[in-house]
Protein: Citrate:sodium symporter
Amino acid sequence: MEKNVHLFVRTYPGLGVAAHVLTHPHLAAFAPTLHAARLDIAAVVGRLLKRGELWDEETHWSDLRQRKTTLTVRALEHGKMLSVPLRLTVLTHGVKARPARKGALARQALRVWVPRVDVKGTLHDAADLEPFVEEMVRHELYLASLDRLHSLAYVGEEQVETLSVPVRFRDTPRARALDAAKPQRRQAPPPGLAEASRCLNEEARAGLLERAWERDLEVSRLAEAVTSRTRASVLLVGPSSVGKTALVHELVQRAEAATTGSPLHGLEVFSSSGGRIMAGMRYLGQWQERVKHMVEALRVRRAVLHLDSLSELLSLGAGDTGLDVARQLLPALESGEVSLVLEATPEDVARAERTHAAFLQSLRHIAVAPLSAQAARTALQQASHRVGRARKVRFTPDALDRAGELTERFGSGPSPGGAVSLLRAASTEPGAAGEVNAASVTRAFCTRTGYPLELVDSAIRLDPDALLRRFRERVVGQDEATLLLRNLVVTLKTGLADPSRPLGAFLLLGPTGVGKTESALALAEYLFGDVARLARFDMAEYAAPGSATRLVGEAGGQQGSLARRVREQPFGVVLLDEIEKADAGVHDLLLQVLGEGRLTDATGRTVSFRNTVVLLTSNLGADSAGRSLGFGERGVQERAAHYLGAAAAFFRPELLNRLDRVVPYRALTEDVIESLARRALEAALSREGLSRRGVKVTFGEDVVKHLARTGFDARYGARPLKRAVEQQVVAPLARWLAAQATSAPPLVALRVGAEGRIALSGLE
Structure:
């Protein structure tokens, strides 16, 4: 006796072949050849058939057809909408059509599969195949990340194979007795659940579900809730990555292991998502019919439905009718006929209370808090075994210690979820084949955050003096500011920073063009290896009353610019330029950021600033501090007192008290100006146009002094120096090179002419 199944096969050039059973994607294999993959899957399917599974399920169709389609979906990357083309394989086969209306023509009904995206549906008019597929895929991938779409890219040949698995049964009295003692096979999922969900019990039997370590109390409460006669629906509330989904998976595995008499014996759990529920729904009323079938199937089977997002459920079907999916489910939940398990963060619950209070009251709330340090260490050790088996690596004890340490020190998500994510990233690092140690985990963390290795690895010594010299080479003439940057980095290196506040919160005071923005750029470049990690906001744009909402967002509207930037990249530097120009509401907003290291946006979600440096700049007091070069008549102490007094007179005390330091920047001295002029000139002369022509430009001290003298303005600081270099050097040099009939001389000299202008001449 044999069972035929369809295999969906993808060939990866140079890597191997991936294949899975079309109707059961979790039954999969990856092997160097198709023959090896078929053997692996045949062995697994054979074991399931011997246990009496799969026989009653339809897994093969003689009229299965394959075709290709190309469509474009929208992706969300760093807040921007991108159009990504996808080439997909579509499979179809005929099914029993619904009865045609009286007088209407009978139409062919098709079962439609898109295996790579893992969506399927029933189409009642074959003429609408292409728009039906496009609708299903776009619902499933709505605003998906760019990484997910790249993982779905067409990489090689795709085909459907038929696999025949022979199974022999011993027809003896002993075999019949053993078969009678086995539990009855579960029925195939009814149409309502089969189209919009997957059975977690099947995945548990295949060993594909996660375990929830050190969560016995939460699992017991969850089991008690879903098996009760009334209010059998649960809302798991906890921060992201705390392990809410793992609780559901643990419940399913305990149900599979439960014996007769246990409340969990025979419990079925199905998992779905908003995209699955709405896939293929084109007209008003279609999704209501699907939800109705799902509710009826859950009621008959006494099964549990798991949805991993409360916010997604509440948004499904919302429209002008006022009836969404949540409100349609509410009567069944209140009566206890249907058991639902949802997941949400505290911020999600706060938002939902304003719009769906009755729905929330019908759910039992179970808080899922982060594990204690000891429990997290035990859970991480257990989870690492599963990750290691999946990635075919072994994690050393010091790798587990380092993952837990970095997660706790830098706040990369609740333990052990953040640490497990870090282990997965470390297992893909180059050179991690076979064994992952602490060094691999550290490198993976540095790759993820941008931190330099010497800052994260405690075994690497950091020279404070060398670090100070580096900052002083970048920020010239501001000794107090460079000391501040050095001390900030050293504090971060030693782990002595306050974990409940931003990495640093400083107010930089001084006239324009003295290096305040350059200090922020230097810090971002050292800490995160990229000046793009500096998020700069010009506070002059937020001077109008109510402008603070543009930073935190509006309820039901777009995300705030500040909240979105820090949420997308929590490891970075935020620069609020000319903070004195901002509306008073912006100052009030900063009280929470600077004091508690977090920001609550308009939707109720919390954004952590724990790994962010917040820099405020201001020109307060610059106009009254004097305009002579260097302000030599004022001593350093007087200058500092002047700027601090100007800040104290303008800002509220509660804002100043939340800052780590107020740093006054001194006016630029003559030697500093010459140093900046030389730097600007060297930067201009290293541009691509000169290097491509092989032209080298030399200059003397007279040119530097001339630029420093003519390009500096005490009111505007060093910024006019760059304009002077462009006007007096770059523009004449460009005209001279463009006028050369032949190739330009390899050497060009700059000098100050008798008329007091910079002249240039070509040298052979």
